[in-house]
Amino acid sequence: MNAPQQGFKERADAALKNAVLKIAIDRTTGNAERKRAVAIAAFPEFQAARARGRAIKDHVIAHLDHYLEMFERNATAAGATVHWASDDAEARAIITRICLEADAKLVTRAKSMLGEEIGLPHALADAGIERVETDLAEHIIQLAGERPSHIVWPAMHRTREQVAILFKEAHHPPPAADDPATMVQSARRELRAKFLGADVGISGANFLVADTGATCTVTNEGNAELTTTPPRIHIVTAGIEKLVPSTAHAFALLRLLVRSATGGEMTQYTTFHCGPKRPGDADGPEEMHIVLVDNGRTRMLADEFRPMLRCIRCGACMNHCVVYRQIGGHAYGGTYPGPMGAVLTPVLDGLAQSRDLPHACTMNGRCAEVCPVEIPLPTLLRAWRTRSWRERLEPRSVRAALGLWAMAARRPWLYLLGSRIGVRALRLFGRRGWIGSLPLAGGWTAYRDMPRPSGRTFMEQYRAGQAGRAGQTGRETRK
Amino acid sequence: MSAKPNPRVGLFVTCLVDAIRPGIGFAAIQLLEEAGCRVEVPQAQTCCGQPALNSGDDKDAADLARRTIAAFEGHDYVVLPSGSCAGTMVHAYPELLAGDPEWAARARDFAARTHEITSFLVDVMGYRPRGRRLDATATYHDSCAGLRELGIAAQPRALLASVEGLEMRGLEGNDVCCGFGGTFCVKYSSISNAIVTEKAEAVERTGADLLLSGDLGCLMNMAGKLHRRGAKTRCFHTIEVVAGRAGGPAIGEEG
């Protein structure tokens, strides 16, 4: 939620100068890219599964009211209490009220990006409730006092060497060695007592199953099970777009989600929670609350960003994004980074606060190519650019330059003349084929040379040589 | 796909080729004529409108789309030495003009006639160069718009495979963006620089003499970075090599 959005370029530049960050990003996204490629290659029906995944999500989005009511009915029948939050503030209020009424001192939380979106960590702190993050990466984030930089690997911006230093300071006793196994053991020991002593466990949901009223959570660490089972109260927070009609549909999407996210076929744990503990159950919470969050989603339903509601939060778009892989997640400044974040952050935080995000994209289309539910991310980013232009959020210099250019481009004689003058002027700045420094184009020449134009435009040469078969000697390309 | 004999082809030169490297335009004319086309260069053409489109200025983009469509009325095909501009015409024009009753159908018809040059030569004209020889090693970068918007991957490679003596070397990350992105490269120049630096490193690792690609914008970005780094790699548009014009100066060289 509302982190400051100003200064994207400054944050990006700081990230570009951070060599350790680049190592961390390359390790995680490089691995993710390779593993996904292997998983997709071994999944010959991937394209058909994608089309089906998209169809499932589109169907639910088109009948959202129907499935929301069905889910509420079935979840209530299973013994859960369903709450509706129209925005982040309402969601925070509902959750803190449940915790305070239960006199909760300690809350454990399993990783949930929606929890980040609604600002839950801060809200619990403000209410004086101790919060313990149980996902290993979220545990790292909590110790470091940071926010997630990736929706699947929240601590991917930190190398294991940095994590080792963090654990040595924070764990009692500190881990005996720096290898991953020892560090994981250390975190496990730190967290174990918290799991058993928590009053409330809060989790997200990967799917809300309408015809059973169950919520589904996938993890690889088992922490979600320990977060949702021992405490007296289990609270689920979920965006309303997480609905699926039935368990079979959840599995159809799981096949896409896990392969796209980690390259695995299944996560270690795929858990369905259907209501609180029943008579005769050995364990489970006494109360289960499900907080359904809108927070801009019904607005997206009605506008051009509707396809974004298909998103299943796999992270493939950011793993394959050339910009994300250079600057990492924090530079984006919102809850969600990368291409999907560049579409969602203007919805959540406002376009005026985040207009850089849809522009900081080369429109190369790789994100859409790997998206498991065929979200046309570049098209949606372009839609934000259109809005930004229409709402006059673009810098005056950009508007003026583009206006001048468009005026000339409407007049072929002027455009041709402009090009002729332009290339001659450009030639003045260069020597021996290259231009190393150019006024008004410092963004280019600060980092790379500009090839010097060859002297006469194509149109000049073509017209001059039309009768005499221009272009056959090869000399006409040079002055 | 097969063309009618001797089709009338309108060449859309593109702004960058017009200003920076006219030889690509003449290579296009040469290859189209070798393939049996009657080539014309309509003088009313300016820019495809992509700078406006990518800046969110849909009104100016639509206006330039109408002008371009009108300039190429009557040509059997519209051919461009750029996958990026071709992608704009094929995909964005029909969308930009979908709500305009007078222009929607014309935009669809125009899009159906429009082709990037390597795909036009191979898929429509069944053309392969004959008797071309270039003793060099080369690597190829798939420009994003051509690759993902138009499916151009096999065609340039098929044309290059017909050039005798040319040894192609694989490029690691050949389908990863070079960081050009039109105005992106100046608006977010430090990010663009980080991306093109990785691209240049990958190109240098191939050890190839030449870097080839199908879009002058991407080529200028990569060539400019390679030159700044002191690399000796010479950069050409694919069709310059296919047309036998790689004996002349590469991008940034003067003859």
From TrEMBL, chain A:
Domain LUD: 68-293
A GO molecular-function annotation: 4 iron, 4 sulfur cluster binding
InterPro entries in the cross-refs: 4Fe4S_Fe-S-bd (IPR017896), FTHF_cligase-like_sf (IPR024185), Helical_ferredxn (IPR009051), LUD_dom (IPR003741), LutB/LldF (IPR004452), NagB/RpiA_transferase-like (IPR037171)
Domain (4Fe-4S ferredoxin-type) ranges: 308-375
Listed Pfam families: Fer4_8, LUD_dom
Highest taxon of source: Bacteria
Keywords: 4Fe-4S, Electron transport, Iron, Iron-sulfur, Metal-binding, Repeat, Transport
Keyword check for Iron: yes
GO aspect biological process, one term: lactate metabolic process
Name by which UniProt lists this protein: (Fe-S)-binding protein
Protein species of origin: Paracoccus sphaerophysae
Source organism phylogeny: Bacteria, Pseudomonadati, Pseudomonadota, Alphaproteobacteria, Rhodobacterales
UniProtKB/TrEMBL annotation, chain B:
Record-annotated Cysteine-rich domain positions: 9-89, 139-222
One Pfam family linked to the record: CCG
One GO CC term, this protein: cytosol
InterPro entries to which the protein is assigned, alphabetical: Cys_rich_dom
One MF annotation (Gene Ontology) recorded for this entry: oxidoreductase activity
PANTHER family: LACTATE UTILIZATION PROTEIN A, UNCHARACTERIZED PROTEIN YKGE
The name this protein goes by in its record: Fe-S oxidoreductase
The organism of origin for this protein: Paracoccus sphaerophysae
